Amino acid sequence: MTGGNRDCEKDPAGAPEPGLAQEDRRVVETALRCLGTHSCEACDVCRLLCPDLAITRHPATGRIEIDLDYCKGCGICAAFCPRGAIRMELESDAVAA
pLDDT tens-digit profile of 39-76? Predict the structure, then answer.
């Protein structure tokens, strides 16, 4: 992964249409949370699985942050993210130099 701190942002799009029964509405909301547009829903899966404690939740905004100074690049967060919101990238030689 490259850069400094990375934020994962919530995606407000994709709310269930009005008029659905409450139970159907919950099912749609759950499906959208896990199968939506590949944006972070701050579910904490990555934070709980990170062996280096490099992933935290910002105290004021509640957004997930990845501290690349502590991340060793194991990829557990990317592998288990239910939304696919985290992807691993090789650092270029220019960034590493």
Answer: 888 899 999 999 999 999 999 988 999 998 999 999 99
Closest CA to 84 of 43, 34, 42, 48: 34
Domains located in the chain, CATH noted: 6-89 (3.30.70.20)
Contact between residue 93 and residue 35 where contact means Cβ atoms under 8 Å apart = no
**Model pTM score:** 0.56
Residue 68, H or E segment = none
Q: How many other CB atoms are found less than 10 A from the CB of residue 6?
A: 16
DSSP-derived secondary structure for 7-62: EE------PPPTT--HHHHHHHHHHHHHHSSS-----SHHHHH-TT--EEE-TTT-
